[in-house]
Design goal:
This protein is α/β, with parallel strands linked by helices. It contains twelve helices and five strands. It has a five-stranded parallel beta sheet, sandwiched between helices. Strand 3, helix 3 and strand 4 form a beta-alpha-beta unit. 40% of the residues are buried.
Length: 249
Protein backbone atom coordinates (compact mmCIF):
# COMPACT_ATOMS: atom_id res chain seq x y z
CA UNK A 1 0.00 0.00 0.00
CA UNK A 2 1.24 3.49 -0.87
CA UNK A 3 2.38 5.60 2.08
CA UNK A 4 1.21 9.24 2.31
CA UNK A 5 2.70 12.01 4.45
CA UNK A 6 1.47 15.57 4.99
CA UNK A 7 3.98 18.16 6.20
CA UNK A 8 3.57 21.68 7.56
CA UNK A 9 5.99 24.59 7.31
CA UNK A 10 5.19 28.33 7.70
CA UNK A 11 1.47 28.53 6.96
CA UNK A 12 -2.02 28.87 8.43
CA UNK A 13 -2.95 25.14 8.07
CA UNK A 14 -5.81 26.00 5.68
CA UNK A 15 -4.62 23.67 2.93
CA UNK A 16 -4.28 20.75 5.33
CA UNK A 17 -7.81 21.48 6.54
CA UNK A 18 -8.94 21.26 2.90
CA UNK A 19 -7.81 17.64 2.92
CA UNK A 20 -9.72 16.99 6.14
CA UNK A 21 -12.78 18.73 4.66
CA UNK A 22 -12.87 16.11 1.92
CA UNK A 23 -14.76 13.94 4.47
CA UNK A 24 -16.29 11.04 2.51
CA UNK A 25 -13.66 11.31 -0.21
CA UNK A 26 -10.95 11.20 2.46
CA UNK A 27 -12.32 7.86 3.66
CA UNK A 28 -11.84 6.52 0.13
CA UNK A 29 -8.29 7.87 0.09
CA UNK A 30 -7.57 6.30 3.47
CA UNK A 31 -8.80 2.96 2.16
CA UNK A 32 -6.24 3.06 -0.63
CA UNK A 33 -3.22 4.57 1.09
CA UNK A 34 -1.49 4.35 4.43
CA UNK A 35 -1.64 7.89 5.89
CA UNK A 36 1.61 7.43 7.75
CA UNK A 37 2.32 11.01 8.84
CA UNK A 38 -0.27 13.79 9.18
CA UNK A 39 -0.02 15.67 12.47
CA UNK A 40 -3.05 17.84 11.68
CA UNK A 41 -5.16 14.68 11.86
CA UNK A 42 -3.22 12.28 14.06
CA UNK A 43 -0.33 12.23 16.54
CA UNK A 44 1.01 9.06 14.90
CA UNK A 45 4.50 9.55 13.48
CA UNK A 46 5.15 6.78 11.01
CA UNK A 47 8.81 6.89 9.99
CA UNK A 48 10.65 5.55 7.00
CA UNK A 49 10.04 6.59 3.41
CA UNK A 50 6.85 7.83 1.74
CA UNK A 51 5.44 7.32 -1.74
CA UNK A 52 3.77 10.75 -1.75
CA UNK A 53 4.41 13.77 0.45
CA UNK A 54 2.08 16.78 0.46
CA UNK A 55 3.86 19.88 1.73
CA UNK A 56 2.10 22.99 3.02
CA UNK A 57 3.91 26.22 3.95
CA UNK A 58 6.95 28.27 2.99
CA UNK A 59 10.56 28.13 4.13
CA UNK A 60 11.18 30.92 6.66
CA UNK A 61 13.71 29.63 9.21
CA UNK A 62 17.04 27.76 9.17
CA UNK A 63 15.22 24.82 10.75
CA UNK A 64 12.69 24.79 7.91
CA UNK A 65 15.53 24.66 5.39
CA UNK A 66 17.06 21.57 6.96
CA UNK A 67 13.71 19.85 7.46
CA UNK A 68 12.54 20.26 3.85
CA UNK A 69 15.75 18.60 2.67
CA UNK A 70 14.92 15.65 4.92
CA UNK A 71 11.35 15.51 3.57
CA UNK A 72 12.68 15.41 0.01
CA UNK A 73 15.10 12.58 0.87
CA UNK A 74 12.36 10.36 2.32
CA UNK A 75 9.74 11.10 -0.38
CA UNK A 76 9.40 9.35 -3.73
CA UNK A 77 7.08 12.14 -4.91
CA UNK A 78 6.76 15.60 -3.36
CA UNK A 79 3.77 17.84 -4.11
CA UNK A 80 3.51 21.37 -2.74
CA UNK A 81 0.01 22.55 -1.81
CA UNK A 82 -1.13 26.14 -1.44
CA UNK A 83 0.21 29.63 -2.04
CA UNK A 84 2.70 29.47 0.84
CA UNK A 85 4.39 26.32 -0.47
CA UNK A 86 4.24 27.30 -4.15
CA UNK A 87 5.14 31.00 -3.95
CA UNK A 88 6.11 31.94 -0.38
CA UNK A 89 2.63 33.01 0.65
CA UNK A 90 1.36 36.26 2.06
CA UNK A 91 4.30 36.19 4.49
CA UNK A 92 6.58 36.79 1.48
CA UNK A 93 5.47 40.43 1.67
CA UNK A 94 8.33 40.71 4.14
CA UNK A 95 10.71 40.06 1.23
CA UNK A 96 10.01 43.62 0.11
CA UNK A 97 11.44 45.13 3.31
CA UNK A 98 13.94 44.47 6.11
CA UNK A 99 12.80 41.47 8.16
CA UNK A 100 15.11 42.48 11.03
CA UNK A 101 13.27 45.78 11.32
CA UNK A 102 9.96 43.92 11.48
CA UNK A 103 11.32 41.64 14.22
CA UNK A 104 12.51 44.61 16.28
CA UNK A 105 9.02 46.10 16.20
CA UNK A 106 7.02 42.91 16.84
CA UNK A 107 9.15 41.06 19.41
CA UNK A 108 10.35 42.31 22.80
CA UNK A 109 13.57 40.31 22.40
CA UNK A 110 14.25 39.94 18.68
CA UNK A 111 17.64 38.40 19.37
CA UNK A 112 15.87 35.13 20.17
CA UNK A 113 14.17 35.02 16.76
CA UNK A 114 15.83 32.79 14.17
CA UNK A 115 14.52 33.59 10.72
CA UNK A 116 15.71 33.78 7.15
CA UNK A 117 15.76 37.07 5.25
CA UNK A 118 13.05 35.85 2.87
CA UNK A 119 9.99 33.61 2.81
CA UNK A 120 10.51 31.26 -0.13
CA UNK A 121 8.58 28.48 -1.89
CA UNK A 122 9.59 24.85 -1.46
CA UNK A 123 10.82 24.67 -5.06
CA UNK A 124 13.53 27.21 -4.26
CA UNK A 125 15.28 24.58 -2.16
CA UNK A 126 14.38 21.06 -3.34
CA UNK A 127 12.98 19.44 -6.51
CA UNK A 128 9.16 19.42 -6.58
CA UNK A 129 7.10 16.95 -8.64
CA UNK A 130 3.95 19.07 -8.84
CA UNK A 131 2.64 22.39 -7.51
CA UNK A 132 -1.02 22.72 -6.52
CA UNK A 133 -1.92 26.37 -6.07
CA UNK A 134 -4.58 28.19 -4.12
CA UNK A 135 -5.19 30.01 -0.84
CA UNK A 136 -6.57 27.65 0.16
CA UNK A 137 -6.36 24.88 -2.42
CA UNK A 138 -9.49 23.42 -4.01
CA UNK A 139 -10.45 20.00 -2.64
CA UNK A 140 -11.45 18.66 -6.06
CA UNK A 141 -8.04 19.52 -7.44
CA UNK A 142 -6.37 18.00 -4.38
CA UNK A 143 -8.21 14.71 -4.84
CA UNK A 144 -7.27 14.73 -8.52
CA UNK A 145 -3.59 15.20 -7.63
CA UNK A 146 -3.60 12.41 -5.03
CA UNK A 147 -5.45 10.06 -7.38
CA UNK A 148 -3.13 10.89 -10.26
CA UNK A 149 0.03 10.09 -8.34
CA UNK A 150 -1.47 6.85 -6.99
CA UNK A 151 -2.32 5.90 -10.59
CA UNK A 152 1.10 6.91 -11.87
CA UNK A 153 -0.09 9.69 -14.19
CA UNK A 154 0.22 13.47 -14.44
CA UNK A 155 -2.54 15.43 -12.61
CA UNK A 156 -5.07 17.21 -14.82
CA UNK A 157 -5.43 20.72 -13.39
CA UNK A 158 -6.72 23.64 -15.51
CA UNK A 159 -4.22 26.26 -16.67
CA UNK A 160 -6.76 28.79 -17.97
CA UNK A 161 -7.81 31.98 -16.20
CA UNK A 162 -10.54 32.70 -13.68
CA UNK A 163 -12.35 34.60 -16.47
CA UNK A 164 -13.27 31.24 -18.02
CA UNK A 165 -14.90 30.19 -14.75
CA UNK A 166 -16.75 33.52 -14.62
CA UNK A 167 -18.17 32.90 -18.08
CA UNK A 168 -19.19 29.37 -17.10
CA UNK A 169 -21.08 30.70 -14.07
CA UNK A 170 -22.68 33.53 -16.02
CA UNK A 171 -21.05 36.20 -13.89
CA UNK A 172 -20.98 39.74 -15.26
CA UNK A 173 -17.41 41.05 -15.53
CA UNK A 174 -16.88 43.19 -12.41
CA UNK A 175 -14.05 45.05 -14.12
CA UNK A 176 -16.16 46.07 -17.10
CA UNK A 177 -19.53 46.45 -15.36
CA UNK A 178 -18.43 48.15 -12.15
CA UNK A 179 -14.81 49.22 -12.66
CA UNK A 180 -13.77 46.94 -9.78
CA UNK A 181 -10.06 45.97 -9.88
CA UNK A 182 -9.88 42.25 -10.71
CA UNK A 183 -6.96 39.88 -11.29
CA UNK A 184 -9.19 37.27 -12.94
CA UNK A 185 -7.68 37.73 -16.43
CA UNK A 186 -4.19 36.76 -15.19
CA UNK A 187 -5.07 34.30 -12.39
CA UNK A 188 -5.22 30.52 -12.74
CA UNK A 189 -8.65 28.94 -12.40
CA UNK A 190 -9.55 26.71 -9.49
CA UNK A 191 -11.73 28.72 -7.12
CA UNK A 192 -14.86 28.60 -9.28
CA UNK A 193 -14.77 32.41 -9.64
CA UNK A 194 -16.00 32.74 -6.06
CA UNK A 195 -15.25 36.43 -5.47
CA UNK A 196 -16.58 37.75 -8.81
CA UNK A 197 -19.77 35.78 -8.16
CA UNK A 198 -20.34 38.15 -5.23
CA UNK A 199 -19.36 41.28 -7.19
CA UNK A 200 -15.84 41.38 -5.79
CA UNK A 201 -12.67 41.45 -7.85
CA UNK A 202 -10.39 38.41 -7.99
CA UNK A 203 -7.52 38.67 -5.50
CA UNK A 204 -5.25 36.23 -7.32
CA UNK A 205 -5.43 33.43 -4.73
CA UNK A 206 -4.39 30.76 -7.25
CA UNK A 207 -1.41 32.64 -8.66
CA UNK A 208 -0.68 33.50 -12.29
CA UNK A 209 -2.22 31.48 -15.08
CA UNK A 210 -0.15 30.03 -17.89
CA UNK A 211 1.24 32.92 -20.01
CA UNK A 212 -0.67 35.78 -18.32
CA UNK A 213 -1.03 39.01 -20.29
CA UNK A 214 -0.35 41.29 -17.33
CA UNK A 215 0.55 44.26 -19.53
CA UNK A 216 -2.93 44.36 -21.06
CA UNK A 217 -4.62 44.10 -17.66
CA UNK A 218 -2.36 46.79 -16.18
CA UNK A 219 -3.24 49.15 -19.03
CA UNK A 220 -6.95 48.57 -18.36
CA UNK A 221 -6.53 49.18 -14.62
CA UNK A 222 -4.54 52.35 -15.24
CA UNK A 223 -7.23 53.56 -17.62
CA UNK A 224 -9.73 53.00 -14.81
CA UNK A 225 -7.76 55.45 -12.67
CA UNK A 226 -5.32 53.31 -10.70
CA UNK A 227 -1.86 54.75 -10.10
CA UNK A 228 1.32 52.68 -9.86
CA UNK A 229 1.22 52.32 -6.06
CA UNK A 230 -2.38 51.10 -6.16
CA UNK A 231 -1.52 48.70 -8.95
CA UNK A 232 1.35 47.20 -6.98
CA UNK A 233 -0.91 46.66 -3.97
CA UNK A 234 -3.40 44.74 -6.11
CA UNK A 235 -0.73 42.18 -6.99
CA UNK A 236 0.95 42.02 -3.59
CA UNK A 237 -1.27 39.58 -1.77
CA UNK A 238 -1.20 35.79 -1.52
CA UNK A 239 1.17 35.16 -4.43
CA UNK A 240 3.37 38.26 -4.40
CA UNK A 241 6.52 36.41 -5.54
CA UNK A 242 4.76 34.41 -8.27
CA UNK A 243 3.26 37.50 -9.85
CA UNK A 244 6.70 39.07 -9.56
CA UNK A 245 7.01 42.20 -11.62
CA UNK A 246 3.53 41.95 -13.14
CA UNK A 247 2.51 45.24 -11.56
CA UNK A 248 5.44 46.99 -13.24
CA UNK A 249 4.59 45.73 -16.75
Amino acid sequence: MNRLAVWKFASCDGCQLTLLDCEDELLSVAANVDIAYFLEASSARGGGSYDLSLVEGSITTPGDLERIKHVRRVSKHLVTIGACATSGGVQALRNLADVREFASVVYARPGYIQTLEHSTPISAHVPVDFELRGCPIDKRQLLEVIGAFLAGRRPVVPAHSVCVECKARGNPCVLVAHGTPCLGPVTQAGCGALCPAFNRGCFGCFGPMESPNAAALNARLRAAGMNDDELRRVYRTFNVTSFGGSSDA
